[in-house]
Amino acid sequence: MDVDTGRMKARLNRLILEHAFQYSESASFRLVSGGMSQYYFNCKKVTLDPEGQYLIGNLFFDAIRDLDVRAIGGLTLGADPIANAVAYTSWVHQQPIQSFVVRKKQKEHGTASLIEGKVRPGDRVVVVDDVVTTGGSTLQAIAACRQARLEVARVVVLVDRQEMNGRENIMREVPDLVALVTRDEIMSLYENPE
Length: 194
What we know:
Elements: H1 5-19, E1 21-23, E2 29-30, E3 36-37, E4 39-41, H2 44-47, H3 50-64, E5 71-75, H4 80-92, E6 98-102, E7 115-117, E8 124-132, H5 136-147, E9 151-160, H6 166-173, E10 177-182, H7 183-191
Parallel strand pairs: 5-6, 5-8, 8-9, 9-10
Antiparallel strand pairs: 1-4, 2-3, 6-7
Helix pairs in contact: 1-3, 1-7, 3-4, 5-6
């Protein structure tokens, strides 16, 4: 099945602009990091949407299909719908990639797992996230993967906010980082609606 990635990317950008993005002339949005920003992205309104999952599944799969990886995942909750969309899409393309979830804290019962899914030490994986600002949640997922002796081959994020050194912070740990969408792309759409 061939996909028109250019058209899918344009549609994904439009969904993010319409449903996940807000802009303010002053820095009025408080971020998880505690900082303030003019830009706000709530990508769950896109990653949990059926069309959004279709687009994300295909575009993320396209960004990793050249890698020999066993699984894709990241820190819950932002990474979960992305990883699941990619796992489904990978099956459709007959190149199955497992999804996994990194818990925010280790379970206190059962096996006390920090990572859930069919991954085992030595597996090559891709870490994903919905939005990168400082890179904190992505770095937490990378650390958990390494603690579980997984090899992180690439990081793929939905939106790079291009603030607070998130990209640079992640690339110090995993140099291979792909951002599907940047804040500048969304601002360009915002300022020049079609």
